[in-house]
Design goal:
There is one protein chain. The chain is an all-alpha fold. It has one domain. It contains three helices and no strands.
């Protein structure tokens, strides 16, 4: 087995792991509902950027 073969196997293994994780999420009804809700939040503008979120957490003493 060559180094190129090993590299290819590592890539294929990683891709298969990602697929399994994706299928697990797709089967999780609660996770899918949360994702759909999050998409609606983004579409309607009910979001804030990361820096703003961190600022709010600091102001409330959460971090």
């Amino acid at each position: 087995m060559t180094n190129e073969d090993r590299a290819l196997l590592v890539k294929v293994s990683s891709l298969l792991e990602e697929l399994v994780e994706t299928f697990s999420i797709l089967e999780d009804k609660e996770a899918m509902l949360c994702l759909k809700k999050a998409e609606k939040d983004v579409e309607t503008g009910r979001v804030r950027d990361y820096d703003e979120f961190l600022k709010e957490l600091r102001e409330t003493g959460a971090i």
